[in-house]
Amino acid sequence: MDVRQLTPFISVSPQINVADIGLAASLGFRAIIANRPEKEGEDQPPNAELEEACRINGLDWHYLPVVSGNITGADVQAFAHLLATIQGPVLAFCRTGTRSTTLWALSEAHHLSVEAILKTASAAGYDLSAQRDRLGSAARQESTRPSAIVRHDVLIVGGGAGGQAVAASLLKRQPDLDIAIIEPNTLHYYQPGWTLVGGGVFERKDTVRNMASVMPDRVKWYQTAASLFLPEHQQVQLEDGTALGYRTLVVAAGLSLNWQGIKGLKETLGKNGVTSNYQFDLAPYTWELVQSTRCGKALFSQPPMPIKCAGAPQKAMYLSCDHWLRQGRLKDINVEFCTAGAALFGVADYVPALMKYVEKYGIQLNFQHNLIEVDGAARRALFRITAPTGEVIEEEKPFDMLHVCPPQQAPAFIRNSPLADAAGWVDVDTQTLKHKRHGDIFALGDCANSPNAKTAAAVRKQAPVVAENVLMALQGQAARAIYDGYGSCPLTVERGKIVLAEFGYGGKLLPSFPTWLLEGREPSRLSWLLKEKMLPWLYWEAMLKGREWLAAPQLLEHSPASHSSQQACDFGERK
């Protein structure tokens, strides 16, 4: 739990969970204020569970929902009244803590100086400088669409792999460019390392750094969340109601893991033999389960596309099987791969090598098996199965270990925005990554609808393309940098060997090395060394710093026509 004190009476926090309530009670809090609306995002627990946890721990529960990006005068008055009537100390929370901090600041503006409020908020990690005018006038009414206070040449939504890589590539080309990044998180993760954490190769701490350490010094960082796109006004509205203007906008907001899309899953994650390498704090539990499992049934699930790092369920399975084989346990463990897809891998060239390991480990392949419910206490998983005839049935499978890949979707603020396509992803041209309807907007990474593998290897190639095209847009020129759909999936088939899948749009093979050095369609120790030793360094020291080795964009003489070819498969690794 990330508690940040504003005054001895009130502290704020990003989203809390049920386990945090007991910790809050032990820290001396007497009341909890929830400023985040119910079901605002997929990552939040039901309020009923939080309220019940408060009752059990002797804390008062207060629900004062505030719409992200639209803090009204009535919201401020209600918050001030609540603070005046309840017993403290109080912990208020929302998605990031920004709304709660802003409510406190505006409720105190009538008797505290603006500088004191801004300094207090800053000490807690929240930059409210954009609220200076509103605080100064002690306003109690808010426009539904405030005018932009600050306007940047390039505004980037998202400080993950895509946002940081684009910023670095832009600064490499034009160091004096005015760039800002909107990113609420304080930590930056190297997500492809989680597969190796779950396989006992990496330590979890090696896959995370402070966001401040990877944020370029010349970039303005707004440590809050974006809530609303206003493309007709060239503005993005933040969670606290502030609007930022831009000349060009880059959307690199990633995707959302929909844990609640599988009934019962969220409640049993991290216990009862249920794990997932898709979450930072669960990957070590995967390795614990692999080490402790000696017999029984192990299930590995994969949902319908699109998902990021779509090879991860297989990689978790192969590394687990390799460990069990080395320990002499595999003969006593039944392993099943249950995928909602109709094939083991979407690019046929790599299937033969993978099938050799499926046979070696004795894995049962279950195609068109979609996980829909998990009963952790009973250790049973329910799958919806589509037969070749089209008949749909449901089948329950017992398990001793279950590795789950959750369903995935674009973040809600993108799905509900004017930037989204019918499926909720940012609608871009597949070659230039420019938005199909707004020429000053670009997108890359997991949130874009380009039909490539959702991987950081793809981002490494996309970032220079976006950087070039953004600079062209700022100069009034047509976008000419081209992305070929490149993605990569280092499939860890055993400890020490990898099948290095590299491909682009339409499943076209796009190897980075000559076949005499590295044949990607066969398991290789060199590929393992590349993944274990080189790729983490390449991520932190090259990609996030604008060094574009083997990633220089192709430039056309004239603006290309929209590219409509479809990717055969969204398999890939986030590197």
TrEMBL record:
Residues in domain Beta-lactamase hydrolase-like protein phosphatase-like?
A: 2-109
- What name does UniProt use for this protein? Beta-lactamase
Extract the Pfam families matched here. Answer: BLH_phosphatase (PF04273), Pyr_redox_2 (PF07992)
- What species is this protein from? Pokkaliibacter plantistimulans
- Residue ranges occupied by any FAD/NAD(P)-binding domain in the UniProt entry: 152-272
Name the Gene3D superfamilies on file: FAD/NAD(P)-binding domain (3.50.50.60), Protein tyrosine phosphatase superfamily (3.90.190.10)
